Amino acid sequence: MDYVKVERRDGVAVITIDRQPALNALNWQVLDELSDALDAVASDAETRVVVITGAGDRAFVAGADIEAMQPMSVPEAREWAVLGQRIFSKIESLPQPVIAAINGYALGGGCELALACDIRIASDRAKLGQPEVTLGITTGFGGSQRLPRVVGPGWARQMILSGDVLDAATAERIGLVNAVVPAAELMAEAMKLAAKIASRGAVAVRLAKRALNVSMDADLETGLRFEAEVFGECFGTPDQKEGMKAFLEKRKPVFTGKW
Ligand code: COA
């Protein structure tokens, strides 16, 4: 792959988008490669957690590629939005938790990419926004739907309707990112959190992600029913036996991640 690299270490897969001359903007090829990378990690039983980041120190992803979009017809633009949405939904429904390590500009499609991840950590140099209206377009890769779910309707409307770009501190204050860390420590912090999640019962982590996803779309009753389902499923796994036995024996659990 030319623009998307995948490195695996200790149960963590790091996906890096690397198209630095265009600040890692998403064109057809980058989207295709990202889609392939996600398929590969989804089916990799060894991968417990995924980290997505951008190459270089300027951008996470500075948006969908404006040069590629500029000549699009109405049907082509619709198809483009559907493609981007489908790939970002793959991130959301990936079995493993996904951490966005936001190392710089996360604008437009870049902010939407981060929103499809489970957890967002930003460098103090990051800037986040949905500047589509400054280009005469709406969000297309899920921003109008996921941003209100993450920051609530007030800030989502302000960001999307004004196109304003937020600094990292403001993004943290409104809950758009979970934490802001010095740029030089971003990957170490993301990997530390990834390692912590990877050390937990893997089946429980995957099932918990599914239940959290259901909570975003289902009514409470359906969500609670789903939670009871996955809670029960955990009790058929060796990790539940080990996790509770280890607690009672006052020692650290040794999880296998087996179903
Ligand atoms: N699509 C295509 N190319 C992009 C891009 C995008 N979304 N964002 C940046 N680039 C390219 C620039 O065209 C430029 O290419 P060039 O060197 O061939 O001219 C290169 O990346 C560097 O960007 P530049 O604008 O020169 O850097 P800057 O430091 O002056 O500004 C930004 C950085 C991020 C503020 C600015 O690039 C920007 O506003 N990008 C668009 C952001 C956006 O609207 N995204 C949403 C798209 S829906």
Sheet with the most strands? 6 strands, mixed
Q: What structural category characterises the helix and strand content?
A: alpha/beta
Instruction: Please state how the strands of the largest beta sheet are arranged side by side.
Output: 1-2-3-5-7-10
CATH superfamily of the largest domain: 2-enoyl-CoA Hydratase, Chain A, domain 1
At CATH level 2, the architecture of the largest domain is Alpha-Beta Complex
Query: Mean pLDDT across all residues, rounded?
Result: 98
Radius of gyration: 19 Å
The unreliable regions are none
What number of structural domains do the residues give?
A: 2
Order of helices and strands: EEHEEHHEEHEEHHEHEHHHH
CATH class category of the largest domain: Alpha Beta
Shape: globular
* Each distinct ligand: coenzyme A
Kindly state the percentage of residues in helix: 40-55%
Please give the alpha-carbon distance between the first and last residues. 33 Å
Contiguous helical run count = 11
Q: Percent of residues in beta strands? A: 15-25%
From the 3D structure, determine the CATH topology of the largest domain: 2-enoyl-CoA Hydratase, Chain A, domain 1
Q: Give the quaternary arrangement of the chains.
A: single chain
